[in-house]
Write a structure and sequence with these properties.
By secondary structure, the protein is mainly beta. The chain is built from one helix and eleven strands, in the order βββββββββαββ. Strands 2, 4, 5, 6, 9, 10 and 11 form a seven-stranded mixed β-sheet that branches. Strands 1-3-8-7 form a four-stranded antiparallel β-sheet, with no helix packed on it. Strand 5 and strand 6 (about 60) form a beta hairpin. The radius of gyration is 13 Å and the shape is globular. It starts with a strand and ends with a strand. The mean pLDDT is about 95.
Length: about 130
């Protein structure tokens, strides 16, 4: 069993920054992938970024490339999502999720493949 707790959400103006954290506990393995997903009201949950704990391989969807950076501190079992140049369309509940598989472009886009989920943290970007 893995427990995930997100933090760091909040309200910012367009162009601002936030850093989300995902603290993991329980049976976390080096082979695990940690993904960040988001869900806006009335929309499906979508992938944002994913990182493999073993080698730090990271993947991003096109609409966050160059603005978001994912990183992992394995000693702290924490994954971060640094979000810069935020836009109103980034407004959503952000979730982190874990699976005992390496990250890939497919995994990043496939929330159904992830086994463990946090409760989510709200990010609101105003124009």
């Amino acid at each position: 069993e893995v427990q995930l707790v997100e933090s760091g959400g909040g309200s910012v103006q367009a162009g601002g920054s936030l850093r989300l954290s995902c603290a993991a506990s329980g049976f976390i393995f080096d082979d695990d992938a940690i993904g960040w997903f988001r869900q806006a009201p009335g929309k499906e949950r979508e992938g944002v970024s994913c990182i493999s704990r073993r080698d730090g391989s990271a993947y991003y969807v096109d609409f966050v490339k160059g603005r978001f950076t994912i990183s992992s501190d394995n000693a702290k079992n924490t994954v971060y999502l640094q979000m810069n140049s935020l836009k109103p369309e980034d407004t959503a509940v952000y979730y982190c999720a874990a699976v005992n598989l390496p990250c890939s472009d497919y995994m990043m886009r496939s929330p159904v493949e992830f086994d463990y989920w946090g409760q989510g943290t709200q990010v609101t970007v105003s124009s």
